[in-house]
Amino acid sequence: MTSPPAQGRELLYVANMHGGDLTVIDLTDFTVVDTVAMERVQVDGQPMAMQVDSLWPAPDGATMYASRYPAPLGKERGDTRLPGDLAAFRTGTHELLWTLPLSGQPNHISASPDGGRVYVPIRDRSYVEVVDVGKQASIARVPCGWGPHGTEISSDGSRLYVGTIWGHTLSVIDTERLECVQRVHLGESVRPFVVTRDRRTAYVQLSRLHGFSVVDLARGATSATVHLPRLPAGVEVPHKVGYTVNHGMRMLSDESTLYAAASIADYIAVYSLPELRLRSQIATGREPAFVKVSLDERFLCVPNRKDGTVSIFSIEDETEAARVSAGDYPNRMASILAREPV
């Protein structure tokens, strides 16, 4: 990650999963500048919203890609496991440019650094769909283990890391050969994770671990387990299938600091790297999930899913600069530099 040029405002796009829309926040003054509604569809006569699961901007910031799938509206909303699509829309006008139907339900996408490909994990299958942006077509399905969920692309684009929910693996895909070259079995559903620039270490959240695993990718094994501070009295880790205790991780670009969302306990744990010393805890709203560092690395953005807000913290002093109202169940985020008025 590099700091952006001085010109331009950073706009944070927030996917409101239950609301079927996006909230756009200007990180200059922390105001909401737009709400982008997704279209409604009919499935077997039932009205549904095209729920956005995740977002990824094109390198020039002019296009935003969104993985989406149909979800019921109102009180009947829920996880239907219906097949979804990859959508592309213009960030300046929010005009929908194209959609590509997918073979199953997409989760957290990544794109190649040159913007030519989008990698879409299909959660109810065992592969990642590879989408050629220029062709607007799926060109490959790369097996990587059952239930691919989260993805991270290496800085040079040569490796795609995929966490699987049902396969309990952290898998590594060679993006030139389009084949899985490594699977590290972790014994639990893999949730958000980050990988160091040298591709030797991954910090991995697991569904029912109040903490994270340190994975030695060279050895293909867990080297340590880090436990977050003890849960408050009366708060226990549920053991139902599909549950996740904590769901959000991010590193600063110099790899000096790791942020881990304690979704079950309403805070962000801050660790110094590589020694993994707990430096502080930042109080959030209810159920913080996912963590986004601003492009200039001045702010830490955290969606409070149960409150319908986004907390924006100063990275320098870890104070809350703003808490901005979003939509219904804000979740994944992405940002761009806007050089023209929105």
From TrEMBL:
InterPro entries xrefs: Haem_d1_sf, Host-pathogen_enzymatic-act, Lactonase_7-beta_prop, WD40/YVTN_repeat-like_dom_sf
Pfam families given in the database record: Cytochrom_D1 (PF02239), Lactonase (PF10282)
Domain of life of the native organism: Bacteria
Protein name: YncE family protein
